[in-house]
Structure formats: structure tokens, C-alpha cells
Amino acid sequence: MEPATGTNRAKVEKSEEQWRAELSAPEFAVLRKAATEPAFTGEYTDTKTTGLYECRACGAELFRSDTKFDSHCGWPSFYDPSDSDAVILREDTSLGMRRVEVLCATCDSHLGHVFEGEGYATPTDQRYCINSIALRLVPGEG
């Protein structure tokens, strides 16, 4: 396995069967099959806890609480990943629309989507709209 760029972590590659055994059915649906959890139901939608947000599938650091903001969209929103190499962005044309999917760079799990130019007063003018179930909050500095 080769290190994931910028993360100092080895790339995580597992079979579908291994992911199914390690993740709950809802986690598997979102992280491995690109489902979306229902709006306003995720555990991190409104949390203000200081800390780091890791990928629930592999533990890679993805976001920090100091980049989380209230977007009132129903999912946790961040204006920037913790490291430019923490996530992979790719075009998503599913559901008859053009979006940008956000994936964990370490394990290729689906996290959510990123949107630009929506008028949020953030330093990047981006909204990383991330499923709570794709994250694990580690309280502390962030």
C-alpha cells in the first residue's frame, strides 16, 4: 500500500465484504454506496463541540471544528478540509444534476458534496456538505 498524499497514512483498500462487516448498514449505504442520510437527522448537524472530524470508515482526519459553520441545510457544513489532500473531489452527475462529490482520500469513502458561490460568509465561499454518519468527532483541539 502506498501512503495517501499529504496525510502520512497508508491508503486503505478493502473488499465490499470487509466494509460490510465493519460498518453498520446505514454507514455502508452512505460511505460505500454514496447514499445520503436524511436532512436534520445526523448527530453532528448542529454540534458546536471543538475537535477533529475523522472519516468513520478509516479514521483519517478530514475537517476541524474551526471550519464548521451553520448553513441551516440539514447536514454538517465546513468551509475547508483540514488538509488540502484529506479529500478527493470528483464530478457527480447522478440524480440528473451536476455536483462535486467529496471522498475521503485515504479510503475513497463517500462523504457528501461541496458547493460554491452560495453566498455564505466564509473564507473560501465553499460549503462542504457532509453526512454526519460519514464522520466521527474526536473532541479536543480543532
Describe this structure in words.
With 142 residues, the protein is mainly beta. It has a domain at 44-142: Metal Binding Protein, Guanine Nucleotide Exchange Factor, Chain A (Beta Complex), CATH 2.170.150. The chain contains two helices and eleven strands. The strands form three sheets. A six-stranded antiparallel beta sheet has the order 5-6-10-9-8-7, with no helix packed on it. The chain has a three-stranded antiparallel beta sheet with strand order 4-3-11, with no helix packed on it. A hairpin with a 4-residue loop joins strand 1 (3-4) and strand 2. The radius of gyration is 14 Å and the shape is globular. It starts with a strand and ends with a strand.
Q: Could you estimate the helical fraction of the residues in percent? A: under 10%
Radius of gyration: 14 Å
Largest sheet: 6 strands, antiparallel
CATH homologous superfamily placement of the domain at 44-142: Peptide methionine sulfoxide reductase
How far is the N terminus from the C terminus? Answer: 29 Å
Structural class: mainly beta
Q: Mean of the pLDDT scores? A: 91
